[in-house]
Write a structure and sequence with these properties.
The structure holds two protein chains of two kinds. Chain A is of the alpha+beta class. Helices cover 32% and strands 18% of the residues of chain A. By secondary structure, chain B is α+β, with helices and mostly antiparallel strands. The chains are: A alpha+beta, B alpha+beta. The structure holds flavin-adenine dinucleotide. Flavin-adenine dinucleotide sits at the interface of chains A and B.
């Protein structure tokens, strides 16, 4: 099936692209690797007037190692290149694992980091063909005041299913958003909103240009649970980080409209340590605290149990790391 | 709507200039305009891999998930580009030898995925084969013979001794 009618624009410079965005941002869809956009356009979930191709903009490319030990990763870098990148692997092997966890090698050869960080939220109702959706009528995501997943909700519960945000949030990564008016820097942790319709704080005139990952001596693990590793979207992911003094951070992915930073479980692991009983306690706290609803693949009760299991496995892995 | 833009695309070594619509994916252009029917349309969701072709770096990419105009100035290889003057590529010979084919529908995508694996790893390990082939699915002959054909493809290279 043909894509919906639109104009294709490929700016030669970032400034030229930002000009297009400042004039008509709301009608523009940024095109990274296109592995999500092409799919959603075919299903008429996205019908932009303009596709703005950004994957070859020099400002969005390249990995740099800064003197302070930070990594600067251009938003248009391909996940395949990042997963294999020497500096990424030597500094943050768990981050490399998260890059490698996305979809298949075919998809990673096309997909960009910026596209993954901005991946549209997904849902068992919305991510269907136009005909399938039409049989039930529209939903919050298509501007209709209805949800076919949880009848009572007023805010979209589609899931942030991207694999790379949890590890980058755990690493305290920051992002740069560029617009014709200037640049702003944001913690990735503050980028997401728990609303499946407007799931980031990006303005329509902005482009995510780069991700900065500060150096750290802390341990980091990343775990993805899914049906078939090697192609499938996650049922749930976790990134867990622990400093030498015991400070622990836990970030879940794919279990709600935004990545979830687990507070109580992290405090338990930080203050009591990682003996088996405390790991159980932290894992149980994660299960209790996760305010999830049924959507995409698994029911709410399964999601809570999965949160517990992911915390249990991640803390055990952190403890047992050489 | 603006007039149809020009797409300059090198397909299997032939430099082409095509008037395309932004609405066409690379797969649409390969099949409907260039007329090469080897590359198949399967799920159109990126899950089956039968639309796989190789980019200029010899990597596997999904032609159904990318707008054609993204490929202006690029060079691609489809299944039709592997054979040279009647002589099949080593991976094709290996598929014939190990009979890694049943109905044949997925075979072009499977072979272009396998070709990408061999471009990077002339003697691939099982892990490298699994990683490179996870994105393409055969619903009838299964994956065992396919893996065997990829693992042994080096034996069919024109000059096996010259390969690492
Ligand atoms: C079969 C299949 C399996 C998949 N499995 C997974 C999986 O396991 N895990 C996973 O995380 N994803 C998965 N995906 C989804 C998707 O392929 C990846 O998330 C990919 O990283 C998206 O990147 P892209 O460059 O192709 O994004 P695009 O499709 O180009 O863009 C995605 C979104 O991000 C926006 N965007 C792109 N770049 C920028 C930027 N620089 N600034 C601001 N906004 C931007 C776009 O406008 C669009 O809304 C899968 C997809 C398929 C087809």
């Amino acid at each position: 099936m043909l894509l919906p009618a639109h104009d294709y624009v490929k700016p030669r410079t970032l400034e030229e692209g930002l000009g297009v965005l400042s004039r008509s941002g709301a009608a523009v869809r940024l095109l990274g690797g296109g592995t999500d956009v092409t799919f959603n356009m075919r299903n008429r979930l996205m019908q932009p007037a303009v596709l703005l191709s950004i994957r070859e903009l020099p400002e969005l490319l390249g990995v740099e190692e800064w003197p302070d030990g930070s990594l600067r990763i251009g938003a248009a870098c391909r996940l395949a290149d990042l997963a294999a990148h020497q500096a990424v692997n030597s500094r943050h092997p768990a981050l490399a694992a998260a890059f490698k966890a996305v979809a298949s090698s075919h998809v990673r050869n096309m997909a960009t980091l910026g596209g993954n960080l901005n991946l549209d939220t997904r849902c068992w109702y919305a991510n269907q063909t136009q005909e399938w959706r039409a049989a039930k009528g529209g939903c919050l995501k298509t501007g209709v005041d209805a949800c076919h997943v949880v009848a009572s909700v007023k805010t979209c519960v589609a899931i942030n299913n991207a694999d790379t945000p949890p590890a980058l949030i755990a690493l305290d990564a920051t992002i740069t958003l560029a617009s014709a008016g200037g640049r702003r820097t944001l913690r990735l942790a503050d980028y997401y909103r728990a609303d499946g319709v407007t799931h980031t704080v990006r303005r329509t005139d902005e482009v995510l240009t780069e991700v900065i990952v500060p150096p750290t001596p802390d341990r980091l693990v990343f775990i993805k649970d899914t049906a078939r590793l090697g192609i499938d979207f996650a049922y749930g992911t976790i990134a867990a980080r622990r400093a030498a003094d015991g400070r622990t951070r836990l970030v879940l992915g794919s279990l709600g409209p935004a990545p979830v930073v687990l507070r109580r479980a992290a405090v338990i692991a930080t203050q009591r340590g990682l003996a088996d009983t405390h790991i159980e306690e932290a894992a149980e706290a994660a299960r209790e605290d996760l305010g999830v609803v049924s959507n995409l693949y698994t029911p709410a009760a399964y999601k809570r149990d999965l949160a517990r299991e992911l915390v249990r496995r991640a803390l055990t892995a952190l403890r047992d790391m050489p | 709507m603006s007039p149809k833009p020009l797409l300059r695309l090198t397909v299997n070594g032939d430099a082409l200039e095509l008037l395309v619509s932004p609405q066409q994916t690379l797969l649409d252009v390969i099949r409907d305009q260039v007329g090469l029917m080897g590359t198949k349309e399967g799920c159109t969701t990126g899950s089956c891999g039968v639309c796989t072709i190789n980019n200029a770096r010899g990597e596997a990419i999904l032609s159904c998930l990318t707008p054609a105009l993204e490929w202006d100035g690029q060079s691609i290889t489809t299944i039709e580009g592997l054979e040279r003057l009647g002589d099949l590529d080593a991976i094709q010979k290996s598929f014939v030898h190990y009979h890694a084919v049943q109905c044949g529908f997925c075979t072009p995508g499977v072979i272009m995925s396998a070709k990408a694996v061999l471009n990077r790893h002339p003697r691939p390990t099982d892990e490298q084969i699994n990683d490179g082939m996870a994105g393409v699915i055969c619903r009838c002959t299964g994956h065992i013979k396919v893996k065997e054909a990829i693992r042994e493809a080096h034996a069919f290279a024109a000059d096996p001794a010259a390969k690492p």
